Records
---
Amino acid sequence: MAPKKKAGKGAKEPEVKKKKGGKKDLSLAYKPMEMPINEEIREFYHIQIRDLEDRLAWYQRKWDEMVVQEKLFRQEFEQLATNKKEIVAFLKRTLNQRVDEITDLNEQLQSLQLAKEMEKDAFEAQLAQVRHEFQETKDQLTTENIILGGKLAALEEFRLQKEELTEKFMLMEEQLQKQEREHKDYVHDLEKKSVLDKDRLRKEIIQRVNMVATEFRKVATSQMWDTTKRAILENNTMTLQLAKISQQGLKLLQENEQLRGTQDNLCQQLELLENSQKVMARHSRGHQKIILMLTEKCREQQQGTAEAERLRLLLNQAEQSLLQLQKDNQALRTHRDQLNLQLEQQQAEVQRLQQELTKEQKVRVSLETALAQATSFLQDIVQMQPEEVDGDLDAVFQLQHKEMLRHLLVILSSAVVLSPRLQESQPCGLPEEGQGSNQPLRTGSLLQQLSSSIPYRPGDLGLVPRWIHIPPNPEDLRLLSHTTRVGSFRAHSLPEIRTSGSQKKLKKFSLPGVSLLSK
């Protein structure tokens, strides 16, 4: 802008020199009319410069706030990056630990499966052998049991027969004893009777002899023959009776001998039965020993089956624990996938925010360059002084002045071109804010502040910025530049300047407002 200024001045001097002689009267005629306009324009330019300085201070303050927010956002982004790295490292470490645990568990599972298969084969072989032995033992015991059952039935029959024989023997002994007692009593009675009969007969004989003697004495010879005959007959009858009694005694003795023979036979049979009972008792003790051995083997087989069942339960528990570990592994994998998805989403969000930040920085740089060009252009316009020829203003200066103002308007219009894009991007930006719920709070507040500023309104010159009350932060004020602090002080210390009625005529020189917002 400075070379253009010099060129404008160099071209202006010869034209002014050429027109000095011919236009003295015209300049003198128009001089009292041009001077107040020049002062009003100068005052208007001063007001515009002051407004632009205030606006520049406001933009500088906004820039400092944006820098502070950017620093805070960058710190948060770095914190998030460090947190992300720590989380990723922790997840990788946890994943490696889980993978190591899973590999160890898989190795243990394989070893357990191999051991299980080996033990299963061994137990199946042992079980088959035990079943075979058990079947053989069962068959053998069944046959022995059948034999023993037959023997036991025979023993039972023998026991019944023995009981019957013992009962018969007891009955016969009782009968024999009874018969012996009866026989003894009968013999004693017979002996007693015979003794008594003998004594009675002797007495009777003696009496009869005495009677016979007496009768014989009495009866003498006449009755002797009858008495003797009668005595002989009585004696014969008595001898016959004695012979019968002796025969009956012999019969009783023979019966007693027979009973004694039967008693001896029964005693021999009893001894034989006792011997056979002893033999059967020995056999039964042997069979009891065999039964005890078989019950012990059966108990051992039951213990083996219980041990096999316990091992089967342990195997089922190991399989269930393996399934649980596999489920935990699957859950950890799904959690890892979810964390990876969240990490990718955060990375995409960070990339989007970085892209938006770069766009904002580019737009800010372009607007700052446009603002710097406009300020330098305005400074050049203010520094331009019209040369007076006979008290009149130079028309060439007026034309150059208008041309420079037109260039300034073009520059500012090029800066205003960004405002329609902002108006188009605002409706599209709202759903993104609704969708991006995971953005930081400072980024959302920054977007709200940028979207809340209106680029242009009808009738608004755009020279005075729209003030928004932002509470100052002592930590942020330390980071502000000296220009921002002085500009804010000047903005608050300047008095209000009211435009006069003559300035209303210069509305055609007013400049539109420049929006510094971007998409």
---
Amino acid sequence: MFSAERVHCDDATVPVLAKSKTDTGRIWTYVRDDRPFDGGAPPAAVFYYSRDRAAAHPERHLAGYSGILQADAYSGYNRLYEEGRSPGPILEAACWAHARRKFFVLADIETSARRRASNKTPSPISPLALEAVRKIDVLFDIERAINSLDVTARKAARQERSVPVVAELEAWMRAERAAMSRHNDVAKAMNYMLKRWDAFTRFLDTFSRFSPVVDPRFSYRAEDVVGALERVCASIGYPKTIRVDLGSEFISRDLDLWAYAKGVTLDFSRPGKPTDNAFAEAFNSRVRAECMNAHWFMSLADAREKLEAWRRYYNEERPHGAIGNKPPISLLNPGDAASPLVCSLETGSI
């Protein structure tokens, strides 16, 4: 179950017989199901029971997991997304159904009509909430239409159809939210999404997972980063964007001048927000778990040989659930660097 690259999680209340009363417990459900896009892994579900909703429960359930977790915004998951987590990072993929529900409640015409028919005070209907539901439903319609397509076709459809819808939705929400009181219920529903926008847009992922270079050194200077990027770009072309963290080698004058000369935008992650560069963080965890922790490196030359062998395996043989259980090289178009590159450093011992 927890070998999957993506796991969906939710919890629900359950009545529990107690002495002279009924208590409320929790059922935690973890699901994987790749059948909609013809994934190779069998579907599976795991259920755990707990007496309460403490954060310790999902932390214990997912103690050995590293990958993508789709869940609601329950704060009990927050430590799972922290930088430096062992055995590796968990990337948050926010649930659009949970977000839609908040707007739907405020735009529930049927419930309001039933209350009016029963001579009860009808619930107020928010035009903005109704518009938010309409915009989100466009995305749901797109997903239903592409549900049976393979990973390449789905990604292409999302780039063509979903990306403009998501961009328009974000711009609309930010403009409307700026005119509202923070106590407004629609504003709260918008804040739920806008504060987690990276997690909500993770489904638009366009990465092939291809690793163009793993370059071990005893130390990394800015000119080393530029040299590695020049070698990579000579074979796959220059990207539009490179996502980097705030390490000294990435905020350097050398890299800034190189990026300016090549027309490349440097997209810096925010301080203390490792999920801004989530794919680099996830890749680092794979390098460490599958190679660095599996070998002794007797010299720098030995490290280069073993890491390069692993990189070729990772690119050419290793199946990735996020791209339909294909190896990354199957999705790489030579000379095409349209997707953003991600850069990061990982330390190890020789």
---
Amino acid sequence: MDLSSQFVTYGGLVLAVLGLIYAQVTYWNIRSLPRGNDTQRKLGVTIYNGAMSFIKQEYRYIVIFVVTVGALLFYFLGMQTAICYFAGAALSMTCGWAGMTSACIANSRTAEAANTSGQGSALTTAFKGGSVMGFSVASLGILGVSGAFTIYFVLNGVNDMNLASFATNIGGFAMGASSVALFARVGGGIYTKAADVGADLVGKVEAGIPEDDPRNPATIADNVGDNVGDVAGMGADLFESYVGSVIATIVIASGLGMATNQTFGDVFISNNFDYCRDYSLLYWNKSCRYFKGF
């Protein structure tokens, strides 16, 4: 394996680990912020418990579907494609869970920051909460693709036939991510819209109170829906789009690379752009601190 191939392979693994470490540190930083008064704490815990109950039940059904499809892939396409499929599904579920957990704990802390320190501090807190999912999506995507690349060629060696075989098997990774995104995005979206419309009908039509009024208990279900649909579902959807675009580029480039005798580093140059994208996330996350004084 030439130098450019080694950089694409091991550089991705290192950067992915660093991105996950940064996401974890940011999560701990958010947890250390004040949660506000007893009412804020109680509402935050209620929303968190509701969101976790939904996503646990949803993931149970997703796991059944993933195992069934994975078994079919193992039978028809082989073990390596099935393993890539399971890995893509697992990482997609992890992105949704990590993003939703971060959003739930950032809710009350953002409200407390707005109450005590103003709009700028609230923006910084909310941005940090969202950045956990952003770094999780980018880092786990790079980790999955680069990890599959590394393991595959360590076990099989580097040659043109293995390149074509890898391009076929890595498609299972994108399919696994898409399978989870389908259920998480659509299932969470249905719950979100049902809770939103139900809360509005009860509040505006029957009780005659404004939207998202604290006197309406259905507002809790609406907030739970925002987390499971607009955060967890969006996280899985973003991961699917992210790895899908990378793997599509790899599949196309592998065919062109075999025809033009390019090196592995040239074929997998798309991964280098993903590394730059991960660094840009860090820049924008740090630049948010300039809004703190507003």
---
Amino acid sequence: MNETWCHYLHPTTKRMCQEWRHASSPRPKKAQSFAVAGKVVLNLFFDIQGPLIMEWMFVGNGRCSVRYCDTLQNLCTAIKSKHPGKLSQGEILL
């Protein structure tokens, strides 16, 4: 498992700000990117064959034990679907 803090932002593109205007109207200002959000935690579980699950945890949701238990249940489901039989054979340690 790798737990990493990540910054994210919501860019505004020029395409999103386009609007209809008359030919003699002044040109609109160019749209600029701006950061809105903040930081999130990326929980990444992987094995030798690649990533199993990636889950984003937002800071406002809290980092409580219930959320981590849900993450571990999702991990078991991902292992069963991507590597059937490995949990029962004892090849994977959690």
